[in-house]
Amino acid sequence: MKLRNVMIPAAACVALCALAAPVKRNVIDEVAWIVGDEPIFRSEIEDQYAQMRSEGTSIAGDPYCVIPERIAVEKLYLHQAKIDTVEAPEGQVQSSVDKRLAYFVDNLGSREKVEEYFRKPYAQLREQLLEVMRNNYIVEQVQSNLTKDVKATPNDVRKYFSALPEDSIPYVPMQVEAQIITINPVIPAQEIEDVKARLRDYADRVNRGESKFSTLAIAYSEDGSSMQGGELGYNPRSAWVPEFANVAFNLNDPNKVSRIVETEYGYHIIQLIDKKGDMVNVRHILLTPKVSDKDLRDATVRLDSLRKEIVADKFPFEEAAKYVSQDKDTKNNKGIMVNSLTGSTRFEMQDLPPEIAKRVELMQPGDVSEAFVMKDQKRNKDIVAIVKLTQRVQGHKANLSDDYNMIKEMYERMRKNEILKEWVEQKIKDTYVKIADGWNNCEFEYDGWIK
């Protein structure tokens, strides 16, 4: 049987599916497996299988073998976590759950529709999701502890690549490397004052008891949290930019609204919901001053003038990026763009912002684009940019010269999978396991279940 990537928490996918089906237990419920002293019920397996079918989730193998084995493996990891006293940070788990629920609400439209989809009250869904994500965190931590010493040497990578069958060498799609300079159009002072006046009005209405903060957030906030009444969930100070965190963590009265806070995202007002240890849960309203067409045209003209000087070799792109660019992520790195998905400087075309991909596709290495307007998705505002294509690597079969880091990651992933597979199979040997008749005629991923 093919070895799957067991670095993914063993039962995460199955456990999430279980959220959508209420688990029913009764005295005649069949016990399919026992792992240690914990049963796995037939109804638990059936519920998860039914939900996976309804969502079109594919299962590699017999579901009555795959699903209980995944649940059993998770139990082995959770048992080890008790031995090692591995615990999930409750604040972080709650924050993750709040974000997941916000995602559900955003996509389904309302809390009521979330309850209808999952066929259970919102509070019950939250409790179940807390358990799932708490277990996921713990399993990931145990796996990380088991594989923390995996380090690939160049010799390891060369041997691994040399031993790969020809048909296992991955094909690397065409990739590009690029540099960027961006500037933010000048926003008129009156536009900023108008935004602040609106926020002051909202704060006064809440402080006077005329309006609920959450209602105003739903109606007016320009942040993705608006559908949740501006609620951000429990977060540590490090989760937010300093200007926002400093105010949020100094709030003490849930009935009052903060002063106006300026961040790189715009202007906020904040209301405290609750504090737990080093975590705080707040709601906020974000307004972003709008850029006029004239401001965008003026910024485009400025950046096109800069481009002409770069193309005329009056100074290098890297120098302009350092002194002119307002892109915080690249200006001190010679304008070099970094792929947030991989940590590499290389991008497949679909990983680039669409406005950049449109220009880069028609450029040759060394070309500098004309100035163009693009959306800064992270900060939800229009900016003006120029890009330089520094390298285009045509699609090819992976090789050590061009793709060393990718091959190194493949080797390390393979070693981690081997270590985890060996650990699980040893744990199976050391654990009492009983599989009921009718559930044991399987080709399992791991050896040793049948004793």
Give an account of the 3D structure.
The protein has 451 residues and is an alpha+beta fold. 45% of the residues lie in helices and 16% in strands. It is built from 14 helices and 13 strands. The strands form four sheets. A four-stranded antiparallel beta sheet has the order 9-4-11-10. A four-stranded antiparallel beta sheet has the order 5-8-7-6. A hairpin with a 2-residue loop joins strand 6 and strand 7. Helix 1 packs across helix 2. The longest helix has 30 residues. The N terminus is likely disordered.
Quick structural gist:
It is built from 14 helices and 13 strands. With 451 residues, the chain is α+β, with helices and mostly antiparallel strands. 29% of the residues are buried.
Sequence-ordered SSE layout with sheet pairings:
Layout: H1 12-18, E1 31-35, E2 38-41, H2 42-54, H3 63-83, H4 90-108, H5 111-118, H6 122-147, H7 154-163, E3 171-172, E4 175-183, H8 189-207, H9 213-220, E5 231-235, H10 242-248, E6 261-263, E7 266-276, E8 279-287, H11 293-311, H12 317-323, E9 347-348, H13 354-360, E10 372-376, E11 381-393, E12 396-397, H14 400-429, E13 433-435
Antiparallel strand pairs: 1-2, 1-13, 3-12, 4-9, 4-11, 5-8, 6-7, 7-8, 10-11
Helix pairs in contact: 1-2, 2-3, 3-6, 4-6, 7-14
